[in-house]
Amino acid sequence: MSSAVLVLSGPSGAGKSTIINAAADSIGDFYFSVSTTTRTPREGEVEGKDYHFVTKEQFEEGIVNGDFLEYATVHGNYYGTSLLPVKEALEKGKLVIFDIDIQGHRLVRDALGSKVVSAFITPPTLTELEVRLKARESDSDEVISKRVSNAKIEIEALNEYDFLIVNNSIEEAKNAFISIANAARHRMSQEENKEFIKQWVSQ
Ligand code: 5GP
């Protein structure tokens, strides 16, 4: 099976990880790109599963060493995608799923071009986002208001995405996500098209 790249963006609190977990058994063999961050772990977050939690110095060493496919500062912390595991997963023909912000989406598009399929996931309204962030009880009021004002900026990048998933109900959002993941598997890059045509005419 051909490898595929699916970028998911959307405000924290949109339900991205819940949707991915709910769909995990229905989208075939995939690799979820575990990002590296300098933010402090939330309660219940597991090192190596949710994120690789590092210091600012360690992150900056990674930048210098060229370890990241992309990285960005989000809400005052570094977040980045390690290049090596993504490369390995793509070589194995896996669907690689990224949960990254709008800056990361632009950088991944620059790096991987026509192979990328992307979806923006959001709660139905800004007010609902705030309600969900408060209900999560994992962030201070200050952090929540930073995330809400950042969400207002992020939504303006909606046109850059292939698909929109409005997370009204988990079941509907999960089904939309499964369709998009399947579409991503059929997305061909220009290089793959060239190779396919070469093979096709020669047989
Ligand atoms: P959170 O702190 O809520 O886990 O994530 C905050 C934001 O950072 C989210 O919008 C998430 O998509 C984004 N993010 C997480 N990992 C990465 C990454 O590796 N690169 C970029 N550019 N953004 C990331």
What does this 3D model show about the protein?
This protein has about 200 residues and is an alpha/beta fold. It folds into 2 domains: about 1-30 and about 95-203, Rossmann fold, CATH 3.40.50.300; about 35-90, Guanylate Kinase phosphate binding domain. About 45% of the residues lie in helices and about 20% in strands. The protein has 8 helices and 9 strands. The strands form 2 sheets. A 5-stranded parallel beta sheet has the order 2-7-1-8-9, sandwiched between helices. It has a 4-stranded mixed beta sheet with strand order 4-3-6-5. A hairpin with a 2-residue loop joins strand 5 and strand 6 (about 75-80). Helix 1 crosses helix 7 and helix 5 runs antiparallel to helix 6. The protein is globular, with a radius of gyration of 17 Å. The site of guanosine-5'-monophosphate has 15 residues, from strand 5, strand 6 and helix 4.
Topology (elements, then pairings):
Blueprint: E1 4-9, H1 16-23, E2 30-32, E3 36-37, E4 52-53, H2 56-64, E5 68-74, E6 77-82, H3 83-91, E7 95-99, H4 102-112, E8 116-122, H5 126-136, H6 141-154, E9 163-166, H7 170-186, H8 190-201
Parallel strand pairs: 1-7, 1-8, 2-7, 3-4, 8-9
Antiparallel strand pairs: 3-6, 5-6
C-alpha geometry: globular
Question: How many beta-strand segments?
Answer: 9
Bound molecules: guanosine-5'-monophosphate
CATH superfamily of the largest domain, by name, is: P-loop containing nucleotide triphosphate hydrolases
Strand percentage lies at 15-25%
